[in-house]
């Protein structure tokens, strides 16, 4: 009876958490859709003029306005907008004449590729540096790691990008310049996933693969440095807190090696809140790589939104903003879920 009650309680807990997760997700996404909708109505940009031009006759202007549904009440416009947004219909782009969702599907993999590589660099370099800084607190290593983090937070990333291009591309020639792939290699493979590194590697086009690596190396390292600055600082803070706990002192008294105490015990407990930090850092790179994509002419979603905004293409701007916001919300909720899975205390 106790065992059955325990299973029933666990099932009830899981069901409650799932329902809460779905409700929070639906409410957050509805709020995000509402924000993007009203932003599109508040900004001083007329979407009708962006389509027909400022020299169009009045009857052409009115006809386009009716086709867009802008002559209807605001509440009705919002309901229509929500229905279309839920199905992925953001209208057509004025700039490319394609459906906005098609453009997003073509550009988002480039942003995903760049942000993922930057996050991996930030994790695999930032976490060990943060641990080392915490263990050697007050030493020159600690000061150096903190200085690296301070510079990564203070220096504008577009300036680092320009300096990186000047030094490593123009002067030293260690990497390729702006763009994602040289034109020579762009026809040697068939896009499947949209991620050039994966597609070229899967199809055995090694020359195109290494050319893509040379293109992505510099912008990925810059985003990785930006991510590293945040992750290393938070890792140091979490590790300092864990190293001061009684279980660490007890482990040392028992004679465990320092490496085991630090990496198997302290870091394992620090990894629980660190998961949230990494997820948020990843989300920030996905939404904040606009300047990097602009400097390196990277054909990602950030550059797509920037070009659309400059050409008053509000369908594309709002659609791209909504997708980025949705990804940010999902990553945030996923980090909360992982936090509950990794830390049994939160499930009590």
TrEMBL record:
Annotated InterPro entries: BPD_transp_1_N (IPR045621), MetI-like (IPR000515), MetI-like_sf (IPR035906)
Residue spans crossing the bilayer: 21-39, 114-135, 147-170, 208-231, 266-285, 316-339
Molecular function GO labels: dipeptide transmembrane transporter activity
Subcellular location: Cell membrane
Domain ABC transmembrane type-1: 108-339
UniProt key word Transmembrane: yes
Keyword tags: Cell membrane, Membrane, Transmembrane, Transmembrane helix, Transport
Membrane topology according to the record: Multi-pass membrane protein
UniProt-listed Pfam families: BPD_transp_1 (PF00528), BPD_transp_1_N (PF19300)
Main subcellular location of this protein, as a coarse class: membrane
Signal peptide: none
GO CC, any one term: plasma membrane
Presence of keyword Membrane: yes
Family: Belongs to the binding-protein-dependent transport system permease family.
Protein name, entry field: ABC transporter permease
Native source organism of the sequence: Microvirga brassicacearum
